[in-house]
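Design request, tokens follow.
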């Protein structure tokens, strides 16, 4: 289903997911895709989307403060076509924008694991996950939780299971 419950389960997933995503990207059936985009403040809702084969990842957000920040989206499909991954992050680590909302949505697959971070790992620092109550995970989305989200976002990771073709 989604992120494992309990502190030790989340730590295990957090430790395993970067390696799994690297393997997924390295063994992709189609070449993984990385695209740069600007996260723009100003309070308006913006979206950025990328597709790979039958699968799509869309990041929708609204942010305030500062100036544009360069972000990246990376999508990939496993060699056996059973997993679709989508990562959205600020490569410089911490975003200085004040996010009023966010949502990442996958189409063509159902989320197996997802995690959101207030700070992305950079320069020897570790990822800093959001508290579980700050965001919610459904079968196809990861989004802020109204009234609980503390307005900091620097990274989202999703691994989704693709539908199987039965013989």
């Amino acid at each position: 289903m989604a992120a494992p419950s309990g502190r030790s389960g989340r730590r295990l997933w957090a430790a395993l997911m970067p390696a799994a995503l690297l393997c997924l990207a390295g063994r992709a059936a189609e070449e993984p895709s990385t695209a740069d985009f600007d996260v723009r403040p100003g309070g308006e809702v913006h979206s950025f989307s990328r597709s790979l084969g039958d699968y799509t990842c869309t990041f929708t957000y609204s942010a305030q403060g500062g100036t544009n920040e360069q972000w990246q989206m990376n999508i990939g499909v496993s060699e056996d076509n059973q997993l679709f991954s989508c990562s959205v992050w600020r490569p410089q680590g911490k975003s200085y924008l004040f996010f009023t909302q966010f949502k990442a949505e996958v189409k063509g697959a159902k989320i197996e694991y997802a995690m959101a971070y207030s700070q992305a790992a950079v320069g020897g620092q570790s990822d800093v996950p959001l508290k579980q109550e700050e965001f919610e995970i459904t079968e196809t989305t990861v989004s802020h939780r109204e009234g609980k989200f503390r307005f900091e976002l620097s990274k989202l990771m999703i691994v989704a299971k693709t539908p199987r073709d039965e013989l």
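Comment from the thread starter after seeing the answer: thanks! The radius of gyration is 15 Å.
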